[in-house]
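[Q] Does anyone have a clean structure-token version of this?
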Amino acid sequence: MNQTLLTNDVGARLDRLPVSGVHRRILLFIGAGAILDAFDIYLAGGVTAAMRAEGFASVPEIAVFMSMTFTGMMIGAGIAGWTGDKFGRKRAYSWNLLLFAVASVVAAFVPTMDILIACRFVMGVGLGAELVIAGGMLSEFLPPNVRGKWMTLLGLMINSGLFVATGVGLIVIPTFGWHAMFLIAGVGGIAVWLLRRSLPESPRWLAANGRYAEADVILRRMEAEVEAKHGPLSPPVVVPVADGDQQLPAAETYRDLFSGKLLRRVLLACVCAIAIYICLYGFVSWIPTFLVEKGHSVASSLGFSTLMSLGAPAGAVMGYFVTDRLKRRTTLFIFAGLASLAGLAYTQASSDWAIPLLGFLLVCFVYTMTAVVLYAYIPELFPTTVRLRGTSISSVAGRAVSIATPVAIAALFGMFGLWGPVTLVVAALAAMVAMLLIVPVETSKAPVDATF
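[A] Here you go.
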């Protein structure tokens, strides 16, 4: 049996497995680290508001702090794409989580803002790598008929980081100070790093790299566990390789991604990622600081932000119910429109009920798109051999824009109030919708190895 047939056989064996305990454990292993990374990303909102209130940092320094986070994430995302495709998903996953955890512990004890910014850069490297590998790796274990739902479950776990970070910050920051938030993230990261040692390597990656015997060992173990629970398995059905106009070219390097049909997918993934990152880091993470600058106390701003942050897990739940019922592109069209409307309405909010309600809706719609775009759609666009590299390119593009976004947001907010940041968000979503129309690639319920 040649290598292509062996690789397709591994995919067929994985795709015919019913969802069971082995899938839930893999989701737990991957999601636990992703939750901590999301917690660390989103603690920035409460931490920077507290630093600003106590005079530890100025608004320009906060902008540098956030920009250095994204610089590290951009570098980490680029490294993860290469290491994950070259050395394996599991090994790359271990490296990045340990780096993040150690840097977080150090950040808890820094005496100056300059040192904290340096630590934040190192944390960013680990954060960027984690979020690239998470979606790509999980997608390689899941059958097509439920892949969208399960990827949004990963999104739910990650999106919960916003609520957890703001909720924990509401209790921890006034009591123990903002330094404690970094210590929580670091200690948790070390615990997850130990837990993840039992995470299996992706059989698809092993087979795609000629290590079929190792893939077979992992698959046999998975199949035995599933059979013990569900009974005998049906024979695997190998999906025929597409030909003609549907055939994607073979790809093994970064260079292969920058030509023909794969280049169009790279551009599509980049525009989608940029739009989502602008929404997340150009608005959502700034909400507490916006409120403080408008005259609310730190406690009041954290309270409002905590209520709004419930929209993050709610958005992923919404994505869970729609992502395999609607096509990926249809979902994005609908929620881009809803997020734009909610954002424009939010600029007019002034009452104590309208601010959290409209903020909740905006966050909810943004995080529905986040779950679908970052954790389902983008990893599905690329073949296994370059899945993480393709994902990492889009992540690097998003992070690169995110480096400048905090500075732009600070300037726009200073000149136009909330209208400035919201206009930027709406423009980014319009660009994403236009790109989805120009490059109409649909991935719903197709085998993740399919060359559609």
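[Q] Thanks! Anything notable?
[A] Residues 3-225+253-438 form a domain with the Growth Hormone; Chain: A; fold (CATH 1.20.1250.20).
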